């Protein structure tokens, strides 16, 4: 490989057709994500609709309970990250007396900043549902399991 070669370049120095295709596909995907940013309610309604379609599919097919269990744990993990603060305030405090007012110029009040912002939470949850939906099309992911045990395990996670 010579000095001028980089990822995606063909022998003649121009990007390959495959590289250009996937780059363009990524740009279109990012453009749609950017356009959907202000429509919070619509995004969540679509995600809930996808979730409902997924649940109906699992119910009608009577299988893929492991995939559903993994999706539930993934969504629970995302939800906990969404509710958690980015910086743990208990680690920031020096005294044991509890929270106090700022005493220095650089100690200003900071609003609650989430560890996982709402948009990233929605994006990850929607991708998780779509991946789980794709998994229901393959019998390799339909592991036979007694589903009430999975429900009990999931409830115990709370």
UniProtKB/TrEMBL annotation:
The chain crosses the membrane at residues 41-60, 66-83, 129-155. This is Protein RER1. Belongs to the RER1 family. GO terms for cellular component: endoplasmic reticulum; Golgi membrane. Its main location: membrane. It is a multi-pass membrane protein. Involved in the retrieval of endoplasmic reticulum membrane proteins from the early Golgi compartment. The keyword Phosphoprotein does not apply. InterPro entries: Rer1.
């Amino acid at each position: 490989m010579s000095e001028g070669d980089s990822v995606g370049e063909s022998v003649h120095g121009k990007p390959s057709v495959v590289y250009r295709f996937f780059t363009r596909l990524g740009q279109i995907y990012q453009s749609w994500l950017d356009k959907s940013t202000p429509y919070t309610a619509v995004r969540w309604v679509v995600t809930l609709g996808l979730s409902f379609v997924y649940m109906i599919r699992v119910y009608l097919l009577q299988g893929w309970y492991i995939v559903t269990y993994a999706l539930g744990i993934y969504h629970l993990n995302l939800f906990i990250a969404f509710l958690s603060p980015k910086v743990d305030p208990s680690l920031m405090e020096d005294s044991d007396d509890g929270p106090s007012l700022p005493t220095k110029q650089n100690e200003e009040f900071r609003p609650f900043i989430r560890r996982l912002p709402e948009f990233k939470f929605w994006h990850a949850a929607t991708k998780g549902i779509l991946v789980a939906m794709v998994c229901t099309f393959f019998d390799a992911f339909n592991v036979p399991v007694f589903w009430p045990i999975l429900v009990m395990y999931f409830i115990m996670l709370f």
